[in-house]
Specification:
Elements lengths: L8 H16 L30 E8 L4 E8 L5 E7 L6 E8 L5 E10 L4 E9 L7 E7 L7 E6 L9 E5 L6 E7 L5 E7 L6 E10 L2 E8 L2 E7 L10 E5 L7 E4 L14 E7 L3 E2 L2 E7 L9 E9 L5 E3 L11 E2 L5
Antiparallel strand pairs: 1-2, 2-3, 3-4, 5-6, 6-7, 7-8, 9-10, 10-11, 11-12, 13-14, 14-15, 15-16, 17-19, 18-22, 19-20, 20-21
Bound molecules: (2R,3S,4R,5S)-2-(hydroxymethyl)piperidine-3,4,5-triol.
Pfam families: Glyco_hydro_43
Keywords: Glycosidase, Hydrolase, Signal
GO molecular function: hydrolase activity, hydrolyzing O-glycosyl compounds
């Protein structure tokens, strides 16, 4: 028997109201309460409420999209590079795996830059075998910031071993450089200039006699600051910074920039990148990994402000919680 179901008008009205309320009210969604600060070393969830799995990477800001993109090692499944996007640096949406490592045995420390000449995103990474003896750089490209990135080639830059990498694009010249832990299991850091399209290394490649992993670079008032960790596997150690007036050196060793670091282990972290936050004066964001002894997918991040003091010293201080109000917006007078 055919049966007609009729909902009285007032019930339909209440049902519609409930559906609208449920779909817009946060209590019915999986998202955690939006963050308004950084909590270094703390639990950091993406907008789906899942642990952010994005280690050893970097952040870029894409002005045309008014969006930050955070790239890093996706240490869970699938192994490779992950990408998260954000409008405020606190709340990150998972954009998924932008490069699956496939047959690459070791894929570490991806760094992405935008190349305006070919309108594409270029990712460099540590390409290796399972015992870190291949020691190469790999490069991949994508037309979109959210991938997919396609591997182009891998190489030993000018014949040198290459493991941990850092990248720096000079905002004035747009030239890009890779600082890489090189030779004799990372006994030194070399700095190599890239071609204009960022797709290959040039022979401008020098030993800058800095020790020895996790290089991060910033520039202030014509001085380059290179921050590096020591070499102790996944265990944190005291960092060292160096300064130079030319990115290719010579560099002068300055010391440990972590102030009041009781554990003498870079606040239990290893550097992976220094991000200059656009729109704020001298806003340098230290990005560090808290590997927790073994590069697990659920290891944490230590993000802290980097200060360059009036007399040109690099300093990092511990904050249990902090936010961007610590920096002066560029348009405001001091
Ligand atoms: C230290 C490096 O910084 C990490 O990226 C990773 O390669 C570990 N060593 C492996 O022990």
């Amino acid at each position: 028997m055919l049966y007609k179901f009729r909902l009285p008008a007032f019930r339909a009205f209440y049902l519609l109201g409930f559906v609208l309320f449920a779909s817009t009210h946060p209590v019915y969604s999986q998202q955690p309460t939006p963050y308004t600060s950084f909590k270094p070393g703390g639990e950091w969830l993406d907008t789906d409420g899942k642990h952010i799995d994005c280690h050893g990477g970097n952040i870029i800001y894409v002005d045309s999209l008014k969006t930050y993109y955070w790239y890093g090692e996706h240490r869970g499944v699938p192994r490779g590079a992950s990408c998260y996007s954000s409008k405020d640096l606190y709340n990150w949406k998972n954009e998924g795996a932008v490069l699956e490592k496939g047959t690459i045995e070791t894929f570490e420390r991806p760094k992405v830059v935008y190349d305006a000449t070919k309108d594409q995103y270029v990712m460099w990474f540590h390409f290796d075998g399972n015992r870190y003896t291949l020691a190469e750089l790999g490069v991949a490209v994508s037309k979109s910031p959210t991938g997919p990135f396609v591997v182009q080639h891998h190489e030993r830059p000018n014949g040198h071993e290459s493991r941990d990498i850092g990248m720096y694009v000079d905002p004035e010249t747009k030239k890009a450089y890779i600082g890489y832990a090189a030779d004799h299991t990372n006994r030194t850091i070399r700095m190599v200039e890239l071609s204009g399209d960022y797709l290959s290394t040039t022979t401008n490649d020098v030993d800058i006699e800095a020790h020895c992993e996790g290089p991060g670079i910033l520039k202030k008032k014509g001085t380059y600051y290179l921050l590096t960790s020591g070499c102790s596997g996944w265990t944190p150690n005291p960092a060292t910074y160096y300064t130079a007036t030319n990115i290719l050196g010579p560099y002068t060793k300055q010391g440990n920039p972590f102030v009041g670091d009781a554990g003498n282990n870079s606040f239990n972290s290893q550097p992976c990148y220094i991000f200059k936050i656009p729109g704020y004066r001298d806003a340098y964001l230290y990005m560090g990994d808290r590997w927790n002894g073994g590069g697990r997918p659920d290891s944490q991040y230590v993000f802290l402000p980097i200060t360059i003091t009036e007399d040109g010293k690099m300093e990092l201080h511990w904050y249990k919680e902090w936010d961007l109000s610590m920096f002066t917006p560029e348009r405001e007078k001091r």
